[in-house]
């Protein structure tokens, strides 16, 4: 696996990896570099009991956080695609995507209504 636990609830990418978005040969690559630190999708508290942070979900989660950190609006769509490619079961994908979308919505509402920035993990 490309990540390792650092004892603080974060993972550090130990080996860079790439993911080709869309079909093979699209040429649209995302590369996650060595040293990138993430909590794997900033899983909201209400979904943590249902969402594994390892196994098949790890690389899609790393991709999602990398894209989100870099302000890429494709983060959720790439996460959905990568979960399918990783052969995560449909039901689990649905839970993961719903949690990520709800969290993104909450961050936008909080930024708009409360005036608090919608930064990752905040």
Characterize the structure shown.
The structure is a single chain. The protein has one domain. Helices cover 39% and strands 13% of the residues. It starts with a strand and ends in an 8-residue tail after the last helix. It is globular, with a radius of gyration of 14 Å. Helix 2 (75-85) packs antiparallel against helix 3 (90-114). With 122 residues, the chain is α+β, with helices and mostly antiparallel strands. It has three helices and five strands, in the order βββββααα. Strand 3 (17-20) and strand 4 form a beta hairpin. This is DUF1353 domain-containing protein. InterPro entries: Phage_CGC-2007_Cje0229 (IPR010767). It comes from Sphingomonas ginkgonis.
